[in-house]
């Protein structure tokens, strides 16, 4: 059971939710003092379950591929085809786009399933609301677009393409080059990771505010105020649907930006 | 009165991105109303611009927690 679920069961909701709301207890309390502490929590369960769901679903859907696809095969193909056509091929063209489509589609589906834990009843927290997981994905994107750029152009030319925008007057370069370097080499993975992290973090906080707030109103002891908790819970449900939009949008945006960075590394001009 | 000034700071920090997101969507709606067939072409740009602006507000949110 998670921390917040236990807290609710004890009838003691610490109302303004904060950073503490993201600390989850070990599932097996005997492990807390050993080296395996923090190994089995709701967060790690979400990550492993996301990986398992994706692998099992795609193996199962593609076990016997047919020319006229079955329902499950159609679902798998349209999930892959969506990213392949709207992100990879649109950005990079047919030839290179198809080369990168598998990575981009995997990235999209992995983030989508990871984010989806934020609204699954009983879990209701996304592993991506801990900075470590988005940061790892951001660094992975960074390694890929840097590697591809250096392989395509060589180190010096790639740095020139990335950091020196063409067409600017010479006297502005001392100002422009450090900014471009900072933005394109250093800050890209950070902003990628932080965008995903902050969205899931804020989404979890919003849900906590309305749901814990509802319990807080129920515990108030005044009948009129207790009646108001209905609105708080209704907002909680409404925000869950809003979360659904954010979940899909953030997975798409992360994939789109990764695709654009890869395309930028392959392109000849800035 | 209790609480922290970070909340006020985050409110101020959200003004700029709020205006920015509004401008982006307004521009997209105008473009789509004038030329409906361009909606598919401009939609990735819409989401990318939206994401780039929205992250500024989210930086504020993260800093409001990190600096407390």
Which SSEs are present, and which pair or pack?
The complex is a heterodimer of chains A (270) and B (68).
Chain A: H1 3-9, H2 42-61, H3 71-116, H4 132-153, H5 155-163, H6 173-218, H7 223-266
Chain B: H1 5-13, H2 15-34, H3 39-66
Poorly predicted regions of chain A are 5-12
Estimate nothing, just give the exact number of structural domains of chain A: 1
Q: Structural class given helices, strands, pairing of chain B?
A: mainly alpha
Helix and strand element order of chain A: HHHHHHH
Keywords (chain A): ATP synthesis, Cell membrane, CF(0), Hydrogen ion transport, Ion transport, Membrane, Transmembrane, Transmembrane helix, Transport
Pfam families (chain A): ATP-synt_A (PF00119)
Family (chain A): Belongs to the ATPase A chain family.
Transmembrane segments (chain A): 39-62, 100-119, 131-150, 196-218, 230-253
Summarize the structure.
Chain A: It is found in: Cell membrane; Membrane. By secondary structure, chain A is mostly helical. Chain A is built from 7 helices and no strands.
What does it look like?
The complex is a heterodimer of chains A (270) and B (68). In chain A, 72% of the residues lie in helices and 0% in strands. Chain A is mainly α. The radius of gyration of chain A is 23 Å and the shape is globular. In chain A, 29% of the residues are buried. Chain B is mainly alpha-helical and 68 residues long. Chain B has helices at 5-13, 15-34, 39-66. In chain B, 84% of the residues lie in helices and 0% in strands. The model of chain B has no long low-confidence stretch (mean pLDDT 88). The interface between A and B is medium-sized, with 19 and 11 residues.
